[in-house]
Amino acid sequence: MGQMRHVLLLLAFIQIVVIAAETDGRDRGCTFRLIVINLTVYNLRMLTGTNLMGQLSGDIGSLTELETLSLTNCGLYGPIPGAIGSLQQLIFLDLNSNKFSGKIPNSIGNLSNLYYLDFTGNQLDGSIPVSVGTLPGLDMLHQAKHFHLGMNQLSGTIPPELFNSDMSLIHVLLDNNKLTGSIPSTLGLVKSLEVVRLDRNSLSSPLPTTLLNLTNVLELYLSNNLLTGPMLNLTAMNLLSYLLAFYVRMMEHTHLQGPIPVNLFSIPDLQKVVLSNNQLNGTLNIGTTYSNELQYIDLQNNSFTIFQPITGGQSITLLLDGNPICENTNSVARSYCTVAPSNSSYSTPPNNCSQVSCGSNQVASPHCKCAYPYTVSIFFMTLSSLDLGNSSYYSALEELLIQKFQSSELPVDSISLSNPTMESAGYLELTLEVFPSGEDHFNQTAISMLGSVLVNMTFDPPAAFGPFYIISQPYPYAANWDPVLGSGGAPQLKAAKQFFFEELKKYTNSFSEANAIGSGGYGKVYKGTLSSGQMIAIKRARKDSTQGGLEFKTEIELLSRVHHRNLVTLLGFCFDQGEQMLVYEYIPNGTLMDSLSGKSGIRLDWMRRLKVAIGAARGLVYLHEDANPPIIHRDIKSNNILLDESLNAKVADFGLSKIKVDSKRSYVSTQVKGTLGYMDPEYYMTQQLTEKSDVYSFGVLMLELITARKPIERGKFIVREVRNVMDKTKVLYNLQEILDPAIGLGKTLEGLEKYADLAMRCVEEAGADRPTMGEVVKEIEDIMQLAGMNPNAESVPTSSSTFDEVSKGSSHLPYSEDAFGYSGSFPPSTVKSK
Question: So which residues are the signal peptide here (predicted)?
Answer without folding.
Answer: 1-20
